Amino acid sequence: MNNSPFPPIASHQAPAPATPTRPMRSHGPIETLRRMAAAWRERNQFRTELERKLKGDPHLIDDIGLTRRQVEDELARPFWQVL
After folding, report:
1. DSSP track, 26-61
2. Which one of 22, 25, 66, 72 has the largest count of C-beta atoms within 10 Å of its C-beta?
3. Consecutive sets of 10 residues in the chain, 83 residues long: mean pLDDT of each?
4. How many C-beta atoms surround the C-beta of residue 50 within 10 A?
5. Count of CB atoms within 10 A of residue 56's CB?
């Protein structure tokens, strides 16, 4: 029993991380292709929507903080290119 008038000092160590319920594993080639295709599809949809907004209401482009040149550069990129 501790007869000290002071409470015990708390440990400064971080608690151990929780053990994951499933082990982390890398994705197989099929899953990688699916993810790549999904990313390409998203990029293509984004660029299509951006083009539609540029043609429909150019002021929307100003509202989101882009210049016409930035939008044109984005639209000129192929769907697989990120930046």
Report:
1. PPPHHHHHHHHHHHHHHHHHHHHHHHHHHHH-HHHH
2. 66
3. 55 56 73 94 92 88 88 89 78
4. 19
5. 9
